[in-house]
Specification:
The chain has a domain at about 105-180: Arc Repressor Mutant, subunit A. The protein has seven helices and two strands. It has helices at about 45-65, 80-90, 105, 110-120, 130-135, 140-150, 170-180; strands spanning about 155-160, 165-170. Strands 1-2 form a two-stranded antiparallel ribbon.
């Protein structure tokens, strides 16, 4: 079977009109046509115009005052935007997620889990904490697994802060460590 020839009109060949190339008209008009109709403006009372102008000016002033942040200490023109964005981050903090404490797991932690618990006693951390990852010589996914296991066992609690999960030691785990003598009462 030999291929049938395709006529040029049906082919996929692009011509300049299809791609939108502008070709100027050969004859340009010498001037724009004159507008012959004249519209008359209705007469407006001068006193009403002044009151309308003052109303418009007052509305514009109110609008501009809404756009400008209140200056509270010279933090600059970006203070309003910064405050708005910080409030949004604070609003996105989720509730703390915690489970019942499993004392058996707390008493039989691996060395990596023990280190994670000791850091959680000091401060909140996320699975992407560079200091923890470097010290344990693991990747973020493994630290996330360790943290989630400790969360399910009630040793850690988690809360969502923006897009990050922050883990910390639960009060029950801290109290159990004090009861076992691992922590002093003042440390808890």
């Amino acid at each position: 079977p030999t291929p049938e020839p395709i006529p040029e009109e049906e082919s996929a060949m692009m011509i300049h009109d299809e791609v939108g190339i502008f070709s100027p008209p050969s004859e340009a008009p010498a001037s724009l046509p004159e507008m012959e109709e004249v519209f008359e403006m209705p007469a407006v009372e001068p006193s009403r115009t002044r009151s309308d102008r003052s109303d418009i000016a007052a509305a514009l002033t109110d609008f501009l005052s809404l756009l400008q942040p209140a200056s509270t200490g010279g933090s600059g023109p970006h203070e309003g935007l910064l405050r708005f964005l910080q409030d949004r981050v604070n609003q996105r903090q989720g509730p703390r997620e915690s489970h019942a404490l499993d004392k058996h797991v707390l008493g039989t932690l691996t060395s990596s889990e023990s280190y994670v618990v000791s850091v959680a006693h000091e401060r909140d951390f996320s699975p992407s904490d560079a200091f923890l990852l470097e010290h344990l010589n693991i990747k973020r996914a493994r630290l996330s697994q360790i943290s989630n296991r400790l969360l399910k066992c009630g040793i850690l609690q988690a809360r969502q802060v923006g897009r990050n999960r922050k883990f910390s030691l639960t009060q029950a785990a801290r109290a159990q460590l004090v009861a076992w003598g691992a922590l002093q009462g003042g440390e808890a």
